[in-house]
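Sample pair:
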Amino acid sequence: MSRMLTQMEEQQKINKAVKQRLEMDWSDKKEAYEIETTNIGLKNTSPTILFHPGATRFADGQSTPETWEFLTRENLDLLETERNKSKDLRHILEVMLTDISRDLRVQSDRVETSLACRIVETDEARRRFENDLLQTLRRIADTEKLILDLKSAIRAQDFPMKVAQTRLNNRMGRPRAENCRDVPQFGLVDEVKSLSESVSALLGQLKQAEETLAALLKIRSDLEKGIMVKRKTLSIDKDRCQEIRSHYPSSVALTGY
């Protein structure tokens, strides 16, 4: 295309030079025509006739009919040659512009198709993220409820533990031989041990639930950010890019018509 532009600029310079040459030739011929017209109109009674003794001499640089015809024909041939060159160059340029505009239109259609597919993919990803976010919010709510239930269950173990430990402590106050390691003593010890193990198990479940909640909150944050990004992308691609590209010129307009 740059080479074609260079050729067009060079041809334009040549055309201007030929135009200037033809204008000068036309001006000379017009002036000669006016002189000859004046001569034809001269009569014996014309007021402008005078004696011109030196008029019979041949002036330097005068042309002959042959050279006059040659120069005239040369100018006309030059005009025709350069006009044909310009015509051929314009034809080549029109074909090139047509091909370029067609290629641009094809590429534009490909971009439109690719952009439309990308919008569909982005919208599907946004919907998946929103569905995942909904499921995550439900799991967060369930996990938060589980944590509350576990904390409540742990607190509920306090009273049985206090009762068992108080009983053991009271029994330690039995006098002398009455302070016996009897079956109730071992039963209370086992009860305290069982309650401790139960609390430990509940604390383990609570820790796991809190870790799960933290992970779910991280997932929720990531999903919310992802949804925000997808919505922004859709806004740019659909509401801005597609809207702007809907005004993309046709192949005819691209050729300059």
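The CA atoms of residues 177 and 194 lie 28 Å apart.
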